[in-house]
Amino acid sequence: MDISNWRTRIDELENMIIELLNKRAAYAVEIGKIKKQEGLPVFDASREQEILNRVAEKTRAQNGPLSPESMQRIFQTIMTETRQVEK
Ligand SMILES: O=C(O)C(=O)C[C@]1(C(=O)O)C=C[C@@H](O)C=C1
């Protein structure tokens, strides 16, 4: 396969990732509404740590090519941005 074929595949995956990230954020918006009703803070350090641990574990099990640390950085950014839509 040539570069342009691989890029087409990447483009397709990006569309899926965008859709999934927006779906994830939409669920978080619902969590944000409940937190507001219950007077809870948006930031939940223990939940974020739990996600980061699971992300590293799953990435390790898949054997890369992304490292567990790299995947954790990606998910940390996702959660930081998600907090913004919950406000
Ligand atoms: O699970 C929650 O409580 C959320 O608000 C969602 C979420 C996330 O993006 O996964 C976002 C902010 C919190 O700090 C923890 C997790």
Automatic annotation (TrEMBL):
SMART domains: CM_2. It is an enzyme of class 5 (isomerase). Residues 1-87 form the Chorismate mutase domain. PROSITE patterns: CHORISMATE_MUT_2. Its EC number is 5.4.99.5. SUPFAM superfamilies: Chorismate mutase II. Residues 3-30 form a coiled coil. This is chorismate mutase. Keywords: Coiled coil, Isomerase.
